[in-house]
Amino acid sequence: MPLSNDEAMSPSTVGAAAPSAAPPVLVYPEPLSADDTAGYADLRRESAWFESANQWSTFRGPKAADALNGLITNDVTQLRPGEGQHAAALTPKGKLLCDMLIFRMDDETFMLALPHSCAAQWLATARKYVNPRLAKVEDESDKWTTWMLYGAQASKAVAALGGADHPVEALSDVMMPELAAWTPWQHGLWHIGPATVRLIRAPLLGSMPGFLIMADTRDADVVRERLEQSVSRHATSAVWNIAQVEGGRPAWGIDMDDTTIPQEANLDTLGAISFTKGCYTGQETVARIHFRGHVNRRLRGLLGASAMPQHAQIVDASGKVVGDVRSTVISPRLGPIAIAMLRREVSEGDTVIVEGSDGPITAEVRELPFSF
After folding, report:
1. Alpha-carbon distance values, 238 to 35, 235, 312, 333, 343 (Å)
2. If we measure between CA atoms, which residue out of 208, 201, 202, 199 comes closest to residue 242?
3. Is residue 70 within 8 Å of 281, Cβ to Cβ?
4. CA atoms of 213 and 306, how far apart (whole Å)
5. Is pTM beyond 0.85 here?
């Protein structure tokens, strides 16, 4: 960690040798098991459901929209009840504090889905800066259980769970077209057996359709039983990770963290940033880059000759370090692929070298998402 100005001038650091950072441990992706390979095939052909690690928070009050808008990159004032969006909270210097999904419930209530690893930072920041008379911020993780159902036939799979008030024989005529017509981030109440859940159309795997199923924890057993009895496969996080990398969506804590500027993580092209809204924490950095400059690095894809380890340095033909490997998987469809943070002078189609522990690995640079 670089020293601050105060630390650099303190007696304890004057003349002291800078500690050498240990090189990061290289982590290679594991090939999929037979079960996971079948799960991946089902996801591509039909559908699969996954456990979700989201942590839920509410933002509620008479001025909730304005208060939330001052803390995040997107414009929640444009949302109507039943709509949602991708956004992020930033530090005052414009670095990412937390990635999030935001859903408007009514005029005064928003629900936020947060990665566990940054939820505490978000909650502390929101409570610090938001007047509780304007809006209250609550951690509601214990109240909700969430699953993710994705795949080429996701709408059919959700309809088969028994949602809405239509007989089973009418599923193909009424419910499937209805669900397929939902717009990205649209959400609403849905029935699964005796349980009422919130269904969310969430584009988390690129162009692959899918939904979040958000159930009251008291109904979790009912919904889980329906999922387990459904035709959809219960797939693991290994399958999800491959689909997420293929879809080009950055994972918090791996592809982006609190050292990352939003545009470096492609959050602008993913629709998580409004450049027309009013002021918010960290806006100056984001706006300056958008209107006057560019980032010097950003996330791109790599198609490798063999499995590429996470944390590995990437060099160009001259041996210059141009980036590092972030999320890395072995796709049954594409082979070894990864998301990498690369300097802007590296272009799509360029050949780079990933410095693996057993020798160099040749890789081709691709834009995200992977398009094959």
Report:
1. 11, 8, 20, 14, 28
2. 208
3. yes
4. 36
5. yes
Confidence check: pLDDT of 16 > 70: no
CA separation for the pair 307, 28 (Å, rounded): 7
Question: What would the pLDDT profile of 231-257 be if each residue is shown by its tens digit?
Answer: 889 999 999 999 999 999 999 999 999
Measure the CA–CA gap between 6 and 144, rounded to whole angstroms.
Answer: 45
Residues 6+ apart with CB under 8 A from 283: 73, 90, 94
Number of neighbouring beta carbons within 10 Å of residue 34: 7
Query: Do the Cβ atoms of 288 and 267 come closer than 8 Å?
Result: no
Helix residue ranges per DSSP H, 89-219? 116-129, 154-160, 176-180
- Predicted pLDDT of residue 326: 98
CA angle, residues 172, 178, 183, in degrees to nearest 5:
140
Q: Which of 132, 118, 110 is nearest to 55 (CA)?
A: 118
Neighbours of 371 (CB within 10 A): 11
The answer, yes or no, to whether residue 65 has pLDDT greater than 80, is yes
CB proximity list for 358: less than 8 A, separation 6 or greater: none
**How far apart are the C-alpha atoms of 70 and 49, rounded to whole Å?**
35
